[in-house]
Design brief:
It is built from ten helices and three strands.
Length: 303
């Protein structure tokens, strides 16, 4: 079968979550609610931090950017899924697929790096409280956000370049609800060994380093908390990073689930279910975790 490069006139078919027409209205309503809760929750976090001067600190500055990223991350996949379900049209153009890949890795990588930066923020706040304002000054905070964005942009463009170099045959159906790069690599008729190596290296670098930073930060935090003499002091110290730790476990737990399910099982069904958690549920849960466990956010929302 002859392989060929795609242009903007060709289309993929996103098979989605289910072929059952009776389930489509239920799934559409469910995903619409999830998306609305995601946008509303993150927008409330953004407004609360913007309007309350007491929240103009490094921790909430990073949370502000995390909420912006979560809105973009969820919108990248959920909006196209809902449009296809409502119009009963599963097609996505080649250009739109490349765009989706680019934004998916951009916002996903930003989330990944921001969680590492926020772990560093909690480490400084708990282990070096007297030097907190000096070590995490506004200029450094802005630089950390800019560097995170630039690294994420590079990562997204590399993945976009990987997809753009692939050659496809006549089978254009993607057994997923968005343009997932591993599924696109499976559809390619050309050799994908170099692409897989590049993706593996990016995953190691942009996955291992932030996770290592988070683990090291919490090792230092726990070591510092253990030395606190009173139980009340230990509780107060740990409560300042409880929300972040919950988000870290949710983000990386579902992310690891996606790759384990795609590696262990040959069926794409398990991978799709894990991807729903990763792309929809996690961005929705983040603002609720921070608002429910954070007194300052609660007061700002009440105001």
């Amino acid at each position: 079968m002859e392989a060929y490069n795609l242009t903007g006139t060709f289309e993929f078919l996103l098979l989605g979550l289910s072929e059952d027409p009776e389930l489509q209205p239920i799934l559409f309503a469910l995903f619409l609610l999830i998306y609305l809760f995601t946008v509303l929750g993150n927008v409330l976090i953004i407004l609360a931090i913007s309007s309350d001067s007491n929240l103009h600190t490094p921790m909430y500055f990073f949370l502000y950017n995390l909420s912006l990223s979560d809105i973009g991350f969820s919108s990248t996949t959920v909006l196209k899924l809902m449009i296809n379900m409502q119009t009963h049209n599963k097609s996505i153009t080649y250009a739109a697929c490349l765009t989706q890949v680019s934004f998916f890795f951009l916002f996903g990588c930003i989330d990944n790096l921001l969680l590492a930066v926020m772990a560093y923020d909690r480490w400084v706040a708990i282990c070096h409280p007297l030097h907190y304002q000096v070590l995490l000054n506004p200029r450094l905070c802005r630089c950390l956000i800019i560097v995170s964005f630039c690294i994420s942009l590079m990562d997204s463009q590399v993945h976009c370049l990987i997809v753009s170099q692939l050659k496809f045959c006549t089978h254009m159906s993607i057994p997923h609800f968005f343009c997932d790069v591993p599924e696109l690599l499976k559809l390619a008729c050309s050799d994908t060994s170099i692409s897989n190596i590049v993706r593996f290296l990016l995953t190691i670098i942009l996955g291992f380093l932030p996770v290592s930073g988070i683990i090291y930060s919490y090792y230092k935090i726990i070591s510092s908390i253990v030395r606190v003499p009173s139980l009340l002091g230990k509780y107060k110290a740990f409560s300042t990073c409880g929300s972040h730790l919950s988000v870290v476990c949710l983000f990386y737990g579902t992310g690891i689930g996606v790759y384990l399910s795609s590696t262990v099982s040959s069926s794409s069904r398990e991978s799709i279910v894990a991807s729903v958690m990763y792309t929809m549920v996690v961005p929705m849960m983040n603002p609720f975790i921070y608002s429910l466990r954070n007194r300052d956010i609660k007061k700002a929302l009440q105001k």
